[in-house]
Amino acid sequence: MDKNSNALCYDIITLEDEIVKDSNPLLKKVFENGHCIYPLPSLKEIQKYYKDQLDRFIPFMNIRKVSENFPVKYSQKLNEIANHMFKEL
User: Fold this and answer.
1) DSSP readout, 15-81?
2) What are the sequence ranges of the domains in the chain?
3) What is the phi-psi region of residue 33: left when phi exceeds 0, alpha when psi lies from -120 to 50, beta otherwise?
4) pTM (2 decimals)?
5) Which of 7, 12, 74, 77 could anchor a disulfide with 59, C-beta 3.0 to 4.6 Å?
6) How far is C-alpha 16 from the chain's CA centre?
7) pLDDT tens-digit series, residues 10-63
C-alpha cells in the first residue's frame, strides 16, 4: 500500500501463518466444522468496505493501462523456501 495515498500497489502471497507488516489478509476463516466462527458484517458495513477497497484500487487503474495485470509479489519466507527447493533440484 502506498502510505501517501492509501492506494493498493501490489498483492503479496504469503505462507498461511505468516504476517506481513502493513498488510491485510484477503481471506479469513468463516466456517469451521460446519459452524460459523466469524461474526458476519451488516450490509452497510459490507458496502462501506467495498467502496473503501475500490477507492484504494482506482489510483492503480488510473496510472496504468487497463489491460496490465495487477502486480503480485511473494513474501520473503516464501521466496526463501522456493530458493532452497530449487537448489536441491
Assistant:
1) -TT---TT---S----EETTEE-SPPPPHHHHHHHHHHHHHHHHHHHHHS-TTSPPPEEE-HHHHHH
2) 11-88
3) left
4) 0.55
5) 7
6) 12
7) 788 898 888 888 777 777 888 999 999 988 899 999 999 888 887 777 665 655
